[in-house]
From TrEMBL:
Entry EC number(s): 6.1.1.21
Catalytic class of the enzyme: ligase
InterPro entries, sorted: aa-tRNA-synth_II, aa-tRNA-synth_II/BPL/LPL, Anticodon-bd, Anticodon-bd_dom_sf, His-tRNA-ligase, HisRS-like_core, HisRS/HisZ, HisRS_anticodon
Organism the protein comes from: Flagellimonas alvinocaridis
GO CC list: cytoplasm
Domain Aminoacyl-transfer RNA synthetases class-II family profile: 1-400
Superkingdom in the source lineage: Bacteria
Keywords assigned: Aminoacyl-tRNA synthetase, ATP-binding, Cytoplasm, Ligase, Nucleotide-binding, Protein biosynthesis
Chief site of localization: cytoplasm
Cellular localisation: Cytoplasm
Protein name: Histidine--tRNA ligase
Length: 459
RNA sequence: GUGGUUGUAGCUCAGCUGGUUAGAGCGCUGGAUUGUGGUUCCAGAGGUCGCCGGUUCGAACCCGGUCUUCCACCCCA
């Protein structure tokens, strides 16, 4: 007997019902991307390794799926490297390509390669899978979809405001009420690191700070000490641990804390402008919240940082994130192009919506009407009827064999078909077809040539 | 990458301190019902107990390895 097939850890098959729900989310996101003036692009599933490596930090490099070279790749490795058993040295010799890790870096690469064809500011969206060699958990997969929208070539803070509105628009449309859009600014984090004299440890400082709400003040301090941040520096950062209140109150305290840091004050100014503009315009269902402990590990962010938390009570990591990166294209040789963008985590949004039961019932219906098969002669007539129903825009199908009524009805029931058409000997003689509405059990008769009337009746 | 956890029928799960032919519910197939589904009744099919190895007279059960699931780290959508 053949062995049981399986799929790799952290990957999934999607059933028709699941695909319908995923498409619903994608369509909604796509609709708003386009309403906001973004244009779609697509990039390859895999890139040259040097395009990706080193862009996401050491941790990121570890999580990038590397693709083995083709051919007899091992014989081309020199003996010293081969026998060193050092993965870091050996990897670049046997792997030149890697699966994309996110959509932002490939986009930066795209912008640089196509800079002469692009009209700036360039607003693009991209909905494609990405891969991470992570250990799977709930809401964490090795293959998952990101839905990104970015703008490059525009420095205005209005872009940040627009992205907050975009998040709000999408989540409102999906019926996902009560999301929290957390915002912070990398410059504030830099300013704090500068003020407390830990500028060189910025990343360690922010990564630790990011965990404040999760592990508490004590543990955060512990981790900072471990990373080599001095006791006195942590003491200086103390006000951060208890900062609270409205955005403007928090900003006021930050102004006091960061008075001596030019970059820190710049960050406060930016945040102030973004938040006050959003407050001025108003949001539909989301909530914008200043969170000075929000860090995000990606080290290419330079200005605003976003992260979206699911509604309260749902156990899920962030369902979206993004920020401004002033020099991402610089790595690929194009200077002075600022970008800002956000990402929607499709797979996590799906899980949250499933948990909150937010998918519309209509997604379950994959067929509007099933025509039962009574035999050769009747079947032929039914096929003509089905054709005219399809022409009228209905999703219609004919049961392929003249199986027993019970079986055909059972099939219709299972598929969740709302209407079943009976076209048997009697109907054929009368030049009519009978429609049974499955939910009510009621019958209605139509003339054979009036499929369009029926279509109109049920729409 | 570190630590833990899980795996028995299509699905959800029982299975005693190791002891003959591994069970239930749901689902599936057929029938009661040759033009009416969702209810009911009857019958039936379906399992290398994740995989490999070890201990034992004997392993679903104990041990080791491996894969998978979920969880906590790390990190992140």
């Amino acid at each position: 007997m053949a062995q049981k097939p399986s799929i790799p850890k952290g990957t999934r098959d999607f059933s028709p019902a699941e695909v319908a729900k995923r498409n619903y989310i994608i369509q909604t996101i796509k609709k708003h991307f386009e309403i906001y003036g973004f244009q779609p692009i697509e990039t390859p599933s895999f890139e040259n390794s040097e395009t990706l490596m080193g862009k996401y930090g050491d941790e990121g490099d570890r999580l990038i799926f590397k693709i083995l070279n083709s051919g007899d790749f091992i014989s081309k490795v020199d003996d010293v490297t081969y026998s060193s058993k050092n993965s870091a040295l050996l990897t670049p010799k046997i792997s030149e390509k890697a699966l994309r890790y996110d959509l932002t870096v490939p986009f930066a690469r795209y912008v640089v390669m196509h800079q002469n064809e692009i009209d700036f500011p360039f607003k693009r969206y991209q909905i494609q899978p990405v891969w991470r060699a992570d250990r799977p958990q709930k809401g964490r997969f090795r293959e998952f979809y990101q839905c990104d929208a970015d703008v490059v070539g525009a420095n205005s803070l209005l872009q940040e405001v627009e992205f907050v509105q975009l998040y709000d628009a999408v989540f409102t449309d999906l019926g996902l009420k009560g999301t929290t859009i957390k915002i912070n600014n990398r410059k504030i984090l830099s300013g704090i690191a500068e003020v407390i004299g830990a500028k060189h440890l910025l990343v360690d400082f922010t990564v630790a700070l990011d965990k404040l709400d999760k592990i508490g003040e004590g543990k955060v301090k512990e981790e900072m000490l471990e990373k080599g941040i001095s006791e006195s520096a942590i003491e200086k950062a103390r006000p951060l641990f208890s900062i609270a209140g409205t955005a403007s109150e928090q900003l006021e305290r930050l102004r006091g804390l960061l008075a001596d840091s030019e970059i820190g004050m710049a960050g406060v100014g930016e945040l102030d402008e973004i938040i006050s503009t959003v407050e001025n315009i108003g949001l539909q269902s989301a909530q914008l919240q200043l969170d000075v402990t929000l860090a995000r590990g990606l080290n290419y962010y330079t200005g605003a940082i976003f992260e979206v938390a699911a509604p309260e009570g749902v156990q899920m990591g962030s369902i979206g994130g993004g920020g401004r990166y002033d020099d991402l294209t610089g790595i690929f040789g194009l200077k002075d192009v600022s970008g800002v963008g956000i990402s929607f985590g499709l797979d996590r949004i799906y899980l949250v919506m499933e948990e909150l039961n937010l998918f519309p019932d209509s997604l379950d219906t994959s067929l509007d009407v099933l025509c039962l098969n009574f035999g050769e002669k009747e079947g032929l007539e039914a096929l003509k009827l089905v054709a005219s129903m399809r022409k009228a825009g209905l999703r219609a199908d004919l049961y392929p064999t003249a199986a027993k009524m019970q079986k055909q009805f059972k099939y219709a029931d299972k598929r969740g078909v709302p209407y079943v058409v009976l076209l048997g000997e009697e109907e054929l003689k009368a030049g009519a077809f009978v429609v049974k509405e499955m939910k009510s059990g009621q019958h209605k008769t139509y003339a054979l040539d009036t499929a369009a009337v029926f279509a109109k009746d049920i729409s």
